[in-house]
Specification:
binds (2R)-2,3-dihydroxypropanoic acid; about 35% helix; about 325 residues; seven-stranded parallel β-sheet; five-stranded parallel β-sheet; Rossmann fold
């Protein structure tokens, strides 16, 4: 018998095979439905979590044998790390591996929303296209536009690198200034209000913390250009969702491209689903075969280290068991 572990959604075989010899694996088989995390955590020494279901103090209290929580993802806002540390539970995540993949996707969303890629696709598919029309679906130029990056970490800087090839003017806001990115990409640091007022495209790439929760609300939308687009590939609750819906409905901004939501997923009667000036994706930022496989392998390595009472290679807290 190996160490009992719960895997909250199916993971690639390459990662699973790392675990087989040491673990007694209970893997939730259905990728599309939420796993019964709390029930299945009770018996587990390790949880490999693929998704964003909360792993809070109450769940950890309930899971008496739990030694390690390994997140397949860079963001771990759904895990109460303080409580885990207090309870001697190691927490790991998968930083670095998805930066380029999320940056590619973010550029894709910028182009999709600015150039009517999704609306154009629907127009053709639904048989509405009768002849070439030079006077419709005019978008906005991405090249030479001003890109405001909110959160200049690994992913933010990977977006800046790509934006340079589009001859974009890059401004950024971050907790600390990043002189290396200013040098490399010509990015200019700006206080948040100036970034919001000057940008044609505002990309959110900050982690979700108490400080960034609802960082973008009514007041912030009122500073943006009416022609601006908001792109969120980080976490939904960084934006006040009611304020976002109002800004889009009232024309306070031109549009948005969203990969993350609050709540996530949005309900079927969410007005966002009816808005023509919005591109919506189901949290696909890091979803490529290569990247999701690498992430799962990193997370499996974290899990094994935690089960062996070793320091996690990609640990979040201070390896309380080591
Ligand atoms: C991440 O890496 O944080 C993505 O949102 C997938 O969980």
């Amino acid at each position: 018998m190996g160490n009992p572990v719960f895997i909250s959604r199916p993971i690639p075989e390459k990662a699973l095979s790392l675990l087989r010899s040491e673990c007694d694996i209970d893997m939730w088989p259905d990728a599309g439905t939420p796993p019964p995390l709390r029930d299945r955590a009770v018996e587990a020494e390790g949880i490999l979590t693929y998704g964003h279901e909360p792993i809070d103090d109450d769940l950890m209290k309930h899971a008496k044998t739990l030694k390690v929580v390994s997140v397949i993802g860079v963001g771990y806002d759904h895990v109460d790390v303080k409580a885990a540390t207090r309870r001697g539970i190691a927490v790991g995540h998968t930083p670095g591996t998805l930066d380029d993949t999320v940056a590619d996707f973010t550029m894709g969303l910028i182009i999709a929303v600015a150039r009517n890629v999704v609306a154009g696709d629907a127009f053709v598919r639904t048989g509405m296209w009768k002849s070439f029309n030079p006077n419709f679906m005019w978008g906005s130029d991405v090249d030479h536009a001003t890109l405001g990056i909110l959160g200049m970490g690994n992913i933010g800087s990977a977006i800046a690198r790509r934006a340079r090839a589009f001859d974009m003017r890059i401004i950024y806001h971050n907790r600390t200034r990043r002189p290396e990115y200013e040098r490399l990409f010509g990015a200019v640091y700006a206080p948040l209000p100036s970034l919001l007022a000057e940008s044609d495209f505002i990309v959110i790439q900050a982690p979700l913390t108490d400080e960034t929760h609802h960082l973008i609300g009514e007041d912030e939308f009122s500073l943006m250009k009416k022609s601006a687009f908001l792109i969120n590939t980080a976490r939904g609750p960084i934006v006040d969702s009611q304020a976002l819906r109002r800004a889009l409905q009232d024309g306070a901004i031109a549009g948005a491209a969203l990969d993350v939501y609050d709540p996530e997923p949005p309900s079927q009667d969410d007005p966002l689903l009816e808005m023509k000036n919005v591109v919506l994706c189901p949290h696909l930022g890091s979803a490529t075969i290569q990247t999701r496989t690498k992430m799962a392998v990193m997370a499996a390595e974290n899990l094994l280290a935690g089960l062996r009472n070793q320091p996690l290679p990609y640990g979040v807290n201070c390896n309380p068991n080591a």
